[in-house]
Design a protein that fits this description.
3 domains; alpha+beta; five-stranded mixed β-sheet; eight-stranded mixed β-sheet; 422 residues; Ribosomal Protein S5, domain 2; 13 helices; Heat Shock Protein 90
Length: 422
């Protein structure tokens, strides 16, 4: 016999909702850092213990909350970000649904300490498994501090599926880097098990953050992007082909300031690099895309991980053009050299210096940190295929990455693998 339909109690509803928003410790950090940034914080401090499974603490110097607002903040669908359905279509804050704090407090031992600068004392709230425990006065600086302990203590099935401490910590570090790149003007620190991992000062630039998270050498293999159309702006950095990796872990996409995944952007990157990067390799990219908020749907995924564009082809074309423009480098004039291969037909008459911007298809470089001469100094040309020499004449210009010989032919500049030529 079918069981009767009945309303679920609030604590069950909250656990179900928490499962949609809070997947792992990194999800908690994401929501709380976004709250801090939305609150206007210029400094955000992140601390975790045991990969966030024992403790996740986020402190900020943002606007803080009054006692009434603090108590409302842990209720479901309570938010200061929107008031009407129409505002969802044009939301500019990172958070807006009013689900995060309610979801987090439903599956953890939750502490909130907060004070607005206009009040002399603050408020301290304790919640355990969705049940309010204490509301106290607190002496604290302006801003907000969250302490999340024993995540999923009351949902053992969910806790059982967490990965190892090292894996969860790696997820948190990766997400911390995302927000550090997205908000270089905001100071950020990250402490794990009492050890300071990052201390990133505020007032920085994107280039400063890339150097801090990667290295100066890595930055030297990136090219700045600055491209605009009537409705799309693309800025940031695009990696030279030798930054290619076997995954997209060095590809960051920010849409109207929001870290997001957009398949159309990844397709655009593939298109922009398809002729200069081997299949299965993904270049580094730090893309900041700005477009009217009415042209973007950020309400696609429960955790706001994915966005959709009203005119995706326009955005894709802008990204392709922006990246290709950034990677076009003028080749220096070469000293005249005698041809190293001479065939029966005479050398063609001199042509104008302009060469068509066609791409080289180099094989995969051995090291992602080895600069490619061809990629950095020559306008690339697609080499012809075949077992016989495809050119009437050619001459050596130099080497690329210690692996390839750079040749000038009547068709332009090509790369030759000396071993494959034997």
């Amino acid at each position: 016999m079918t069981a009767p339909i009945q309303m679920l109690p609030d604590h069950v509803i909250n656990k179900i909702a928490a499962g949609e928003v809070i997947e792992r410790p990194a999800s908690v950090m994401k929501e709380l850092v976004e709250n801090a940034i939305d609150a206007g914080a210029t400094q955000v401090d992140v601390e975790v213990v045991q990969g966030g499974m024992q403790l996740i603490a986020i402190s900020d110097n943002g606007s803080g909350m009054s006692r009434d607002n603090a108590l409302l903040s842990i209720e479901r669908h309570a938010t200061s970000k929107i008031r009407t359905a129409e505002e969802v279509e044009a939301v500019t804050t990172l958070g807006f649904r009013g689900e995060a704090l309610s979801s987090i407090s439903a599956v953890s031992r939750f502490t909130l300490i907060t004070r607005p600068a206009t009040e002399l004392s603050g408020t301290e709230i304790h919640v355990s498994g969705g049940k309010l425990q204490d509301v106290l006065d607190a002496g604290c600086p302006p801003g907000t501090r969250f302490e999340i302990r024993n995540l999923f203590f009351n949902v053992p099935a969910r806790r059982k599926f967490l990965r190892t401490e090292a894996t969860e910590l790696a997820q948190i570090r990766q997400l911390f880097a995302v927000y550090a790149l997205a908000h270089p003007k905001t100071g950020l620190t990250f402490i794990s098990d009492g050890r300071e991992v990052y201390n990133l000062p505020g007032g920085s630039t994107l280039a400063d953050r890339i150097v801090a998270l990667y290295s100066p050498a890595f930055l030297s293999h990136l090219r700045p992007i600055d491209f605009k159309t009537n409705s799309v702006s693309v800025t940031g950095f695009a990696g030279l082909p030798q930054t290619g990796r076997k995954d997209r872990s060095d590809q960051y996409v920010f849409i109207n300031g929001r870290p997001a995944s957009a398949p159309i952007i990844y397709h655009a990157l593939n298109e922009a690099y398809h002729a200069v990067l081997a299949r299965g390799r993904y270049p580094s990219a730090f893309l900041f895309i700005e477009t009217p908020s009415s042209m973007v749907d950020v309400n696609v995924h429960p955790a706001k991980k994915e966005v959709r564009f009203r005119h995706p082809n326009e955005v894709r074309d802008a990204v392709v053009a922006a990246v290709q423009k950034a990677l076009v480098l003028e080749a220096p004039a070469a000293e005249p050299l005698e041809p190293v291969f001479q065939f029966d037909t005479p050398r063609p008459a001199p042509q104008p210096q302009h060469q068509p911007d066609l791409p080289i298809r180099p094989a995969e470089m051995k090291s992602r940190n080895t600069p490619s001469v061809a990629a950095e100094t020559a306008k690339p040309i697609v080499p012809a295929s075949g077992n016989k020499a495809p050119w009437k004449w050619c001459r050596v210009l130099g080497q690329a990455g210690g692996l390839y010989v750079v040749l000038e032919t009547e068709d332009g500049v090509v790369l030759m693998d000396p071993q494959a030529a034997h």
